[in-house]
Hints:
By secondary structure, the chain is α+β, with helices and mostly antiparallel strands. Helices cover 27% and strands 37% of the residues.
Amino acid sequence: MGMYTTLHCRCKVKEEYENELFRILYFDNEWRKSTIPEISEFGKDERAFFISAILDDEEEHIWIFSADLKNYDNTLEHFIDIVLTKICEEIYELETEYEEDSSPSIYELLEREIVLVKMGERDY
């Protein structure tokens, strides 16, 4: 059957990308239809549609992204590297967790780059 990996991200999105996110996530529902080349490229990933988002705080531009998918082609890593790196001004929480892990992998935004700061662990 395959194992699942989850993603949870709470971040402040750069204001210039908010309208595009609204359009993609609430109207088109397809990342590949983005007018932003990097996001459109990510949208070619066949599992991109598993990643969803909600606007958590409109005044502060806080969004929550989430996903639960079989991450065979590193969809989540591509989303982090391509999309989040482009659109995030700040990251408050960003973690992924493989189904067999006992703790999540944690990421931070450091000097405009998202880096893995703690790798998820397994008990066996």
